Amino acid sequence: MDCETIDMIKIILPAILTILGNIIFYLWIKKRVDRSIEEYKITYSGIFKEKIDVYREILDKSYRIKLLINRYHLTGDEKRGADFIKEIEEFINFYLKNQPFLSENMLDKLKKIRAEFQFIFDNSYQYYSLSKVSGIPKEMRTEMTLKFFEAGNKFKTDNPFNELETVIIKEMRADLKTDNFEK
């Protein structure tokens, strides 16, 4: 080997080693990043699906409770009242267990709707259980009847229910990014 070849090797060898080192480093980093992205993608998709399922279940439960309480308000049937109490307990337990998936706004609406359900049930129950009892003062009977009709009017206005449904649907659309489909 002559001097020129040795000088060329001295220049090319570090360049080749640097290129090989960079390639190995790039492949190692790429593998780690790809693995992390895949892990986060799997985790996020599971959480995302769970969140959507929670939204759906809340809508389903609120519709069922609304139907049960409406039927109870109209008939005063004790079995329907017991069914309503059971459903409202399940509703409360469900949204309490799933709080991490719910926004503060939605939690506020859920608490409000729970209070509305309770108001309607309490006043319907009081009306049906005490309306047949004699000896109740006329003022108390009038007040009880007014609250009974006020509870019934909540179904006509439907505001507390619509507020909850609107918040859930708005958050689902935001999560699913369905507003982008319209453009």
Task: Describe the overall structure.
The chain has 183 residues and is mostly helical. The mean pLDDT is 81. Helix 1 (3-75) packs parallel to helix 3. The chain is built from five helices and no strands. The chain is rod-shaped, with a radius of gyration of 32 Å. 86% of the residues lie in helices and 0% in strands.
Give a summary of the structure in a few sentences.
By secondary structure, the protein is an all-alpha fold.
Which segments are poorly predicted (pLDDT under 50) over 5 or more consecutive residues? Answer: none
Label the structural class.
Answer: mainly alpha
Cα(first) to Cα(last) distance is 70 Å
Rg over C-alpha atoms, rounded to the nearest angstrom: 32 Å
Compute the average pLDDT.
Answer: 81
Q: Helix amount, in percent? A: over 70%
SS summary, helix count: 5
What letter string, H or E per element, gives the SSE order?
A: HHHHH
Largest sheet: none
